[in-house]
Design brief:
Layout lengths: L1 E6 L5 E6 L4 E3 L7 H11 L3 H11 L4 H8 L3 H15 L4 H18 L5
Helix pairs in contact: 1-5, 2-4, 3-4
Amino acid sequence: MDSRMDGGENGRSARVLNGPQTELTLGSRIFSDGEWSQLIVDLRLPLRQAQIVRLLFAGASDKDVAAELDISVPTVRTHIGRLFWRFGVKDRTELVLYVFRQFRRNSGAIGHRL
């Protein structure tokens, strides 16, 4: 997998992952860096699980996540399984929705609007 820096939206740099069948741009984000940081604290995520969730939001496959984080695919799947258990969800879609809903709930409490 090739990883390079590219220009992102609004002049931000964006990391692009180029796999055999995938191109993911991490610069076109749903959350700002500050929002991600707060979300990680709110969800009490360990660093590695936070990294994996962020990559899942970008549409990364298990293989993409493993390559980006320099870990094995089985290790990625173990982390994802623990995230499912932790948040009581059954699949990636439910996990992403859960995280997004937590963000909405917490950001609404501090006055941000989405």
